[in-house]
Design brief:
By secondary structure, the protein is mostly helical. 76% of the residues lie in helices and 0% in strands.
């Protein structure tokens, strides 16, 4: 236990526990020292859990009980499975404290246990100071602004806060489709004209929110595609590109059908085909005549274009425009600014009128287009009906032509029917000849197709299993890579100047002591077995000797009186020897019980039961005094 206590004391000193140099065993720990060591270990293992615990025992007994209960609960939350309570800290025993400290030291992080062995440089000192500062700020509870002390105003200031505003970003990797190559123009645009991501949003505070939204959208799209491909794409037995193209085609067809169904209620069925075509040509001609050129020109050019455009369907508007143009000519007493303002107003009014006229013409064009499509559909349907009626009329005409020579035609028709029947019978016999092998071939191909379907379904299930295994292998590889990086960092953080020979020699010494103890135990067991064998052999020899002696003496005791007395003495001697052996065995049993009781006494002495009972009595008296003092205060109040 000395080696274990040294390791525990060394680890506790690294956590910041104030242990003096003369302490070299757990037996020397006091209650205050145990509480301080446990709290320091808890703060290193879990700062959130240990920040609310006090490393020193308060003077009041009720407060001490509360501290002990909170420490016991914290150790149970970490996973300690042994028996623990307030008595473990206030009335401690050496084995319980040793097991608790061993559990906490095993829970300590490697970095904290080895930080003191690393060489102290400027960077390490700075990093330690930063870590201490951050840990202190994290353990400080949050307070409202009006309750903060001046020392907390800097660390708990609200700071700048921004709204989570998202804007659309243009990223090169998101523009490129899966499995497609970008064109040269797109690459040139991305290289020469595409702005950086930090400049694209209108506000700099929206960059982080926009990036998060963009990445979340791409990740969700990738997950949806993977789920759809694993559930439906594999079942379609198509390549990913072909599956995407078919899906896009189906979407386009669906959109067209929805647009057509939405446009049907707006159609007019009373408009004829030629009239709709004429209306369509008139609308196109009006659009050509009333189109406004986008080329920039002078005010005179626009005025001349709007004033001399022929629009026979709306003479009132043309007259109004001519009147406006004539009134817009500058007079002698008007200034140039008034003239420009008047011209600007006239241009705006003309533009508004032209936009309204264009919208009206667009609506008329849509309505006429829908009407024309319906008329063409109706025309096709009527053409099909006319073709059917023409066939019926032609059949009736041929029948009417056969009526004058009915008997002769009936004979011919009967002859044709008989010939047709014979031909049908002949064809049926020929079909039966060909039908049997075709049916067999059909059955064979059907069975082969079913087998292929079963094989394909089996392979599909194997592919799914392989996908799952690949995914699991990728996750395991990722976890192992993370573990490898963690082990590499731990290896780099290990102290390089510590010699392994000291630890190796200590381990070899411990192993040697264990081997020596095992040899001693084996030797004692072998000696005990040999002794037991010897005892058993002597007991058997004694029983056999007594039996032989008893038989011989008993034979002579019948003849001689002195031999009879010897026989009685022999029986008494045998009985006394048996009692003596039984007494020796009872003494051995009593000695073993004495040793067991001595060990139990030593164990109880290690637990310091008497001292703990005395401390409990003292604490009980202190609690009674506190209760009486509180009762007196209550009475006074």
């Amino acid at each position: 236990m000395e080696e274990v206590d040294k390791i525990l004391i060394h680890a506790l000193r690294q956590t910041g526990t104030d242990l003096s140099e003369d302490i070299d065993s757990v037996k020397q720990f006091t209650s205050e020292l145990i509480v301080e060591a446990v709290v320091k270990c808890l703060r290193v293992i879990n700062p959130v859990l240990g920040s609310s615990l006090s490393p020193s025992l308060p003077p009041g007994m009720s407060a001490r009980f509360r501290v002990g209960m909170s420490l016991a609960q914290a150790c149970q939350d970490l996973g300690f499975k042994g028996e623990i309570g307030y008595q473990t800290f206030l009335y401690s025993s050496e084995p319980e404290i040793r097991s608790l400290l061993m559990f906490l030291v095993e829970k300590l992080p490697r970095e904290s246990a080895e930080a003191s062995d690393q060489p102290a440089g400027k960077s390490s000192v700075l990093q330690k100071a930063i870590a201490v500062k951050i840990r202190a700020q994290l353990t400080t509870p949050w307070l409202p602004p009006h309750c903060r002390l001046p020392s907390l105003c800097k660390t708990q200031s609200p700071g700048p806060s921004q709204r989570f505003q998202v804007q659309l970003l243009s990223l090169p990797h998101s523009i490129k489709g899966p499995g497609k190559m970008q064109r040269k123009e797109v690459k040139d645009y991305q290289r020469d004209f595409l702005l950086p991501v930090t400049v694209q949003p209108s506000h700099h505070a929206s960059v982080a929110a926009s990036l998060l939204e963009q990445h979340m959208a791409e990740l969700s799209a990738a997950q949806e595609w993977e789920g759809e491909w694993n559930s439906q794409g594999l079942l379609s037995r198509l390549a990913p590109e072909e599956y995407r193209s078919r899906k896009i085609t189906r979407l386009h067809k669906r959109i067209v059908e929805l647009l057509r169904s939405a446009a049907k209620p707006c159609s007019q069925s009373d408009v004829s085909g030629p009239q709709s075509c004429a209306d369509l040509s008139e609308v196109l001609q009006s659009l050509k005549g009333s189109a406004i050129s986008d080329n920039k020109g002078s005010h005179f050019t626009h005025t001349q274009k709007f004033s001399f455009t022929q629009m026979p369907q709306e003479p009132d508007k043309v007259a109004q425009q001519m009147a406006a143009v004539s009134s817009s000519l500058p007079c002698g007493n008007q200034t140039e600014r008034d003239v420009q303002a008047l011209h600007q107003q006239e241009l705006e009014s003309m533009l508004q009128q032209s936009v309204l006229h264009k919208e009206q013409l667009t609506e008329n064009l849509k309505r006429i287009t829908v009407t024309a499509a319906q008329v063409w559909d109706e025309l096709k349907q009527r053409e099909l009906e006319n073709n059917e009626k023409e066939k019926i009329v032609q059949m009736k005409k041929q029948t009417a032509d056969l009526l004058p020579n009915a008997e002769e035609n009936l004979v011919k028709l009967q002859f044709l029917v008989e010939a047709s029947a014979k031909r049908v019978v002949n064809l049926a016999s020929q079909w039966e000849k060909h039908r049997a092998p075709l049916i067999d071939e059909h059955r064979r191909l059907k069975e082969l197709c079913s087998n292929q379907d079963m094989e394909s379904s089996r392979k599909l299930s194997e592919i799914k299993d392989l996908h799952d295994k690949i995914r699991q292998s990728a996750e395991e590889a990722k976890n192992k890579e993370g573990l490898y990086k963690q082990l590499i960092t731990e290896l780099e953080n290990l102290p390089q100047d510590v010699s392994r020979s000291a630890y190796t020699a200590r381990i070899l010494e411990i192993v040697g002591n264990i081997k020596k103890q095992k040899e001693d135990i084996t030797k004692v067991l072998s000696d005990t077995k040999e002794l037991q064998k010897e005892i058993n052999s002597l007991t058997g020899k004694l029983d056999r000797t007594f039996a032989v002696t008893d038989e011989l003496v008993f034979k002579d005791a019948k003849k001689d009186e002195s031999v009879r007395k010897s026989y009685k003495y022999l029986a008494a001697l045998h009985e006394n020897c048996s009692q003596l052996i039984q007494t020796i065995e009872d003494m051995g049993t009593i000695l073993r019980e004495i040793r067991d009781l001595e060990e139990q006494i030593e164990t109880e002495n290690c637990n310091k039961i008497v001292a703990n009972l005395e401390r409990i009595l003292e604490d009980y008296r202190a609690i009674r005094q506190e209760n009486s003092a509180l009762a007196a205060k209550v009475r006074e109040a």
